[in-house]
Amino acid sequence: MKQRVGIAQTLLHLPQIIVVDEPTAGLDPLERIRFRNLLARFSQEKIIIFSTHIVEDISGSCNQLAVLDHGKLLYTGTPIEMRDLALDKVWEALLPDQRFDALERDLDMITHVRVPDGIRVRFLATDPIPEAHPVTPTLEDAYLYLLRHGNEYKQSNMA
């Protein structure tokens, strides 16, 4: 409720630049969507600076973004361009339990989930395991790629 009051106070004054820090944290999914849509409407006439670690908020609300890690700028550009940074670096595989146990520490894991046939693993790699197939990266995949391999990205961009 305090968060809503603070947002309402800011929006009443309609400044040219609105800075929101983790604005959807603690909101239920429906309220998050409503709030993102509200910010999108305001962004047509105002500058909205959105500070968050919730990737869904960024992908659904921002047309330009920057990724910072410990005060260092890792990326600036569009969400689509950022997602494309992870092309050919995100893989999935369905592994039997024993194979997963053997590889778990070596995989640059994004997620894993148990399914009836084994464990479905999503991971980052430039040289994937034989069982893997490439998948289309999400913005969250690209974010993890930048955080974990940001130096590699910066070096390849400087060349």
Which keywords apply here?
single chain; four-stranded antiparallel β-sheet; 2 domains; 42% helix; two-stranded parallel ribbon; alpha+beta
Main sheet record: 4 strands, antiparallel
User: What portion of residues belong to β-strands?
Assistant: 25-35%
- Tally of structural domains: 2
What Rg is obtained from the alpha carbons, in whole angstroms? 19 Å
Shape estimate: elongated
- Give the overall pLDDT as a whole number: 86
The assigned structural class equals alpha+beta
Name the strands of the widest sheet in spatial order: 6-7-5-8
Number of helices: 6
Helix fraction bin: 40-55%
Termini gap: 50 Å
Low-pLDDT residue spans: none
In total, the number of strands is 8
* N to C succession of SSEs: HEHEHEEHEHEEEH
Describe the structure.
The chain has 159 residues and is an alpha+beta fold. The chain has two domains: 2-62, no CATH class; 85-158, no CATH class. 42% of the residues lie in helices and 28% in strands. It has helices spanning 2-13, 29-42, 55-61, 79-85, 97-103, 139-158; strands at 17-21, 47-51, 65-69, 72-77, 90-95, 108-115, 118-124, 133-134. The strands form three sheets. The chain has a four-stranded antiparallel sheet. Strand 6 (108-115) and strand 7 (118-124) form a beta hairpin. Helix 4 (79-85) packs across helix 6 (139-158). The termini are far apart.
